[in-house]
Specification:
GO molecular function: dCTP deaminase activity
Mean pLDDT: 92
Number of helices: 3
EC number: 3.5.4.13
Organism: Spinactinospora alkalitolerans
Shape: globular
Largest sheet: 4 strands, antiparallel
Pfam families: DCD (PF22769)
Number of strands: 11
Keywords: Hydrolase, Nucleotide metabolism
Amino acid sequence: MILSGHEIRRQVEADAITVSPFDSDHINPNSIDLTLDDTILRYCDPVIDPRVEPEVVKLTVPEDGLLLEPMGFCLGSSREIVGSTEFVPMVHAKSSTARAGLFVHVTADLIDIGSIGTITFQLFSTLPLRVYPGMRIAQVTFWKPMGEITLYSGKYQGSAGPMKSMIFRDRYWDKLHGAADK
């Protein structure tokens, strides 16, 4: 069951959902808008090896905007801290952002219940597009889970700003190469 905008507001006020800072003007019929923070990460390596920690360059988005190049990929984050221990957040691009040629969170839209922090946006621009700090770039919906809840406690918990991939920390790399069996 998806929460309506009115119910999102009630759950924020009841501290069952975290959206901080909270701006009631950002509430939609069944979502709340998220805004872009002023930090962008770009990967430096021409090839990403998931077993190795990737090197990134950190860019500050100036007030007059940052140009995203066509077919370029970078990571940004929400200004807002978002999450819940009672509802499952799902992040989606705003339709106006998508119609301008920017894909936001194409494959990682589901936020685990119990994960509370800033939201890292995977940004893929199909056209030259300028982004600005504070622009409404995405929206988050909240869903009521069914069944017993196990809260998230993984490597991205408490995110502050954009987070690069931490896949290199996953234990299955050791298992693939027998390190766990020694």
